[in-house]
Hints:
- By secondary structure, the chain is of the alpha+beta class.
- The protein has a domain of 49 residues.
Amino acid sequence: MSPLSMFEPDGVRYDSLEEFRELRxxxxxxxxxxxxxPLELNTASRSSNKDxxxxxxxxxxHSLIVGTYVEPTDGTADIIL
Length: 81
């Protein structure tokens, strides 16, 4: 995790924080793993599994992917990715 104040658009894949968040969601949905640099989307591997099972995440888990703040106890709303 890194502070969002360190975010900078890369000008190639994303020009805004919203585009970056959408791309991170796509990576999770497509089972793409990244390096350990949270504000850079450098892929480490891609799943070869064509039959992907949707992920069921609570609001807190989803917030960790897109970089928003949600209380850890706020897990009532399920999100399907």
